[in-house]
Amino acid sequence: MKFTRFEADNYVYTGVLEESIIKEISGDMYGDWEYTGRVYNADEVKMLAPLKPNQVIGIGANFVAHQGDLPDTLPEIPVFFFKPTSSVIGPEENIVIPENIESVKFESELAVVIGKEAKDVSPEDILDYVFGYTIGNDVTAPQYFHEAGHWTIGKSFDTFTPLGPVIETKLDPSSIHVEARLNDEEKQNSPTSLMIVPIKEMISYLTKVMTLKPGDVILTGSPVGAEMVGDGGVIECEIKEIGTLKNTFKAVGKKAGVS
Ligand code: MG
């Protein structure tokens, strides 16, 4: 099932996408909901990020290029970071390159959406707590990584977390490819089997530290091939089973007549 948030006539709705039709729902997407009976044509509405996340957590440097590069043991403390929910945008919105820099990095990622409160859950059971999966672009300005290793600022600018286009609830995350095309040229295309910290272990680890709640989003890391992009670049992050998340990079620092 593909859950979506969308705007029509200045109102925001939640619905289920079936081919080109969206069936509006009411209630709690993670729990009790029902169809309202109203139906929209997907081409005639504005698709939004498919949820307003409770929080967004990312994992750093989590893909290798080849199976043989996978380490024998998992890292004792994986590199996690938070992204502010204010950085979330939806499909087709512009990713704004901050003033004073000319380019930022795209990172196409599988994004896990938590559906049930989870604390101290084993890797074997953790997928029972997952509501579904969407696509995230973990946009990054490495120019703003602190020399002491802190990534927060470089991950936090407004518009730096495109999500969408839908949350797919029926997905086997072990059997998919995470892809990205920049200006129609393939840049990333890796199976999730190339993750260093696998999805189940990653989320289980987080639940040993913090209570995860419905609406929490975990960005599971980007395949090899992410690049810096400047003004006008068009990025399409794709997971075939979910859809394509397309955004355009826009520089605000380059205003006409201002140097
Ligand atoms: Mg990332």
Layout of helices and strands:
Elements (H helix, E strand, L loop, with lengths): L1 E7 L2 E8 L2 E7 L5 E9 L4 E3 L6 E5 L20 E4 L4 E2 L4 E4 L6 E2 L2 E7 L15 E8 L14 H5 L4 E8 L8 E6 L2 E7 L7 H11 L6 E4 L8 E2 L4 E6 L3 E9 L8
Parallel strand pairs: 6-16, 8-13, 9-19
Antiparallel strand pairs: 1-2, 1-5, 1-13, 2-3, 3-4, 6-7, 10-17, 11-12, 11-16, 12-13, 14-15, 14-18, 18-19
The structure holds magnesium ion (MG).
Describe the 3D structure:
This protein has 259 residues and is mainly β. The protein has two domains: 1-48, SH3 type barrels (Roll), CATH 2.30.30.370; 49-251, Fumarylacetoacetase-like, C-terminal domain (Fumarylacetoacetate hydrolase, domain 2), CATH 3.90.850. Helix content is 6%, strand content 42%. It has two helices and 19 strands. It has helices at residues 152-156, 199-209; strands at 2-8, 11-18, 21-27, 33-41, 46-48, 55-59, 80-83, 88-89, 94-97, 104-105, 108-114, 130-137, 161-168, 177-182, 185-191, 216-219, 228-229, 234-239, 243-251. The strands form three sheets. Strands 1, 2, 3, 4, 5, 6, 7, 8, 11, 12, 13 and 16 form a twelve-stranded mixed β-sheet that branches. Strand 2 (11-18) and strand 3 form a beta hairpin. The longest helix has 11 residues, at 199-209. The N and C termini lie far apart (49 Å). The relative contact order is 0.22. The mean pLDDT is 95. The structure holds magnesium ion. Magnesium ion is lined by residues 58, 107, 109, 138, 219, 221-222.
